[in-house]
Amino acid sequence: MPTDPKPTHSTSPSGESFPIPQQKDYPKEFERIQKLADEARKENKEIVVVMGVGFVGAVMAAIIADARDGKGNHSKFVIGCQRPSVRSYWKIPLLNRGQSPVKAEDPQVDPMISRCVLESKTLTATYNSDCLSLADCVVVDVQCDFSKEDLGRMKTGQADMAALEATMRTIGRKIPAECLVLIETTVAPGTTEFVAWPILKKAFERRGIESVPLLSHSFERVMPGREYVASIRDFWRVCSGCTPKARDRVVTFLQEVLNTGEYPLTVMDRPIESETTKIVENSYRATILAFLNEWSLFAERNGVDLIKVIEAIKVRPTHSNIIFPGPGIGGYCLPKDGGLGYWAYRHILGFEDGDHFFKITPTAIDINDTRALHVAELVRDALRNMGRYIAAADVLLCGASYRQDVGDTRYSGSELVVRKLTEMGAEMRVHDPYVEHWYEFEKQDVYPAPRRSWARFFRSQDELVNLRVSKDLSKALKGAEAMVLAVPHKEYLDLDPDRVVEWAGGPLAVVDCFGILPDDHIRRYFQLGCEVKALGRGHIQRIKDEVRKKG
Ligand SMILES: NC(=O)c1ccc[n+]([C@@H]2O[C@H](COP(=O)([O-])OP(=O)(O)OC[C@H]3O[C@@H](n4cnc5c(N)ncnc54)[C@H](O)[C@@H]3O)[C@@H](O)[C@H]2O)c1
Fold this sequence. Notes:
Layout: E1 9-11, E2 17-19, H1 26-42, E3 46-51, H2 55-66, E4 76-81, H3 91-96, H4 109-119, E5 123-126, E6 137-140, E7 145-147, E8 158-160, H5 162-174, E9 180-183, H6 191-206, E10 214-217, H7 228-233, E11 238-241, H8 244-257, E12 266-267, H9 271-301, H10 306-314, H11 334-347, H12 354-357, H13 360-370, H14 372-385, E13 394-398, H15 413-423, E14 427-431, H16 439-442, E15 469-470, H17 473-477, E16 482-485, H18 490-493, H19 497-504, E17 509-512, H20 519-527, E18 531-534, H21 540-550
Parallel strand pairs: 3-4, 3-6, 4-5, 6-9, 9-10, 11-12, 13-14, 13-16, 14-15, 16-17, 17-18
Antiparallel strand pairs: 1-2, 7-8, 10-11
Helix pairs in contact: 2-4, 5-6, 9-11, 9-13, 11-13, 14-15, 20-21
Bound molecules: nicotinamide-adenine-dinucleotide.
C-alpha cells in the first residue's frame, strides 16, 4: 500500500504555511544562533534557552528577554527552542518576525515580543536544539498531559510525560555541565527528582561529566486573560532545587527575571514539595468548584437561586473565594493536575494504597468533567415545555471558551454541551466573540492529539468538524429554537430579551449556565413566551408562575 508522503510544511492558525527545515539546514541555523550568543556574551548577557514556546514558554521567554539588571541593561539573551514538527514548527518563523505565536487577550504580549525580537534583539527562536550547548540556563516549558480513558473516571487516566522525558534526554546530551535546568512544566510530584534528574545524571555519566546536574523546579501560575504577563512576572513563585547549589541558582535566576521584590519567592527544600504545591492548589480549586454541584442541583429542585446564596456567603471574609461553577471546569490545568498527583503516588512513588484514601480529588474532577451533561438535560426540558423536541432543534451555544472574556477553549464545559446535544440530535451553532477556531471540533481527529478527542465518548460526532464559530450574534440567533448562555463573556451580560427574541424570529428556550440572567430579564423572557432554565437557579419556576398568573 502506498504511504502518504512525509509532510513538508507546518501551517499557522491563520493559514500561513512554512517549509519544515531539512537536515542540511541545521548547521547554518546553529551558526546563526552561535553568532548571536557570542555577541550577547560579549555584552555580559547570560544565555537562556526556553524549551517549548507554547502558551507559557513563548511569554516566559519574552519576560526573560525583557529583564534588565540594576544598571538598566538587558541581562539575558533568550533562545526559544521548539521541535520542527508539522504541528508546531510555524511558531519559530513567527517569533523571529517579532510576532507572538500565541493569541493572548493581554495587550502587553504582542508589543513585548516584538520589542525583544526587533528592538533589543534579546530574543530569537530556533528549531535546532544544539543551541542547548550555549546555555547558562534552560527553562523547560513543554507540556505534560494527563489523558483520561473514560468520561467521568479520572482514576483510569494516565500521565503522558513523553514530551518532557524526550526534552530532558535532549538537554542531558547537550548542555554544559554548569548549566542550570529549571522545570516549569506542571509535573506529577516526584518527576523532577525521580524521573528528570536520573535522565540528566545518566546523560552526564555517558559524557564523562563528573559534576551533578543542576536541576530545579518552579511551576507557573499563569492565567489566560488580560493580565497574562503580570500573572507570570508580577506574581508569587514557589521554587526548589535538587541540590543546595541548584536551589541557590534558581533563586538568583528568578530574582533576576521576575518581580520578586513585590512578590517574594517561597523556597522549598525539595522539588517534590514545590511540585505538590502546584497539584494541591489546583486540586483545592477543583474541589471547591465541584462541591457546589450538589448544591446547584438542590437549588434547582427547591426554588433556591444559588447565585444569590453565593453572593450572601461571599461577604464573609473567610468564605470570599466561593465561586459558582459554570457548565464544567475547564482550562488546561484544573481538569488534569489532581490526576497527575493521584497517578504519581502509584506510578512514580510506588504506593499501592492510593484508592484507600484518594477520595475527594478524583471525585471532584469527575464531577467537574461531567457537570456539562446536565446542561443538555435542561435544554431538552426547556424545549419540551415549549412543545418542541431536542432532536433536530437548532440550538445556539453562546461561549466556547472555558472562562469569561478569553479565547482559550481547552477542556471547556461548552465542548461537552455541544457533544451531548449533538448526540441527542440537536443541530448546533456557536457564537463566541473571542474564539476564532474551535479546534476541539474542527480538528477533532488530531486535536488535542490523535484518538484523544472527547468525541470518542459520544455518538454521531463526525459532522462536528464543520462547526464554525460565529461572531455575529444576530445572525447566529436567526431561527434558533434554543440559546445556551455558557460563558459570562461581557457581551452576554446585558443582552436585551426583546432583541434576542426579535433576532431569533420568535420565542425560544434560554438556558443560563453561569448566573448570567438578572431576574428582570428572566421575567421578560417568560412574558415574551420563552422558556428559561438555568444551572442552580430554582427560583426561575417562581418567576414563571408569577408571569403566567398575571398573563
Ligand atoms: N496554559 C496555562 O494556562 C498554564 C497555566 C499554568 C501552568 N501551565 C503549565 O505550563 C506547561 C506548558 O503549558 P502550555 O500551555 O505552554 O503548553 P503548550 O502545549 O501550549 O506548549 C508546549 C510547547 O512545547 C513544545 N514541545 C513539546 N515537546 C518539545 C520538545 N521535545 N522540545 C521542544 N519543544 C517541545 C510543544 O510543541 C508546544 O509548543 C504545562 O505543564 C502546563 O500545565 C499552563
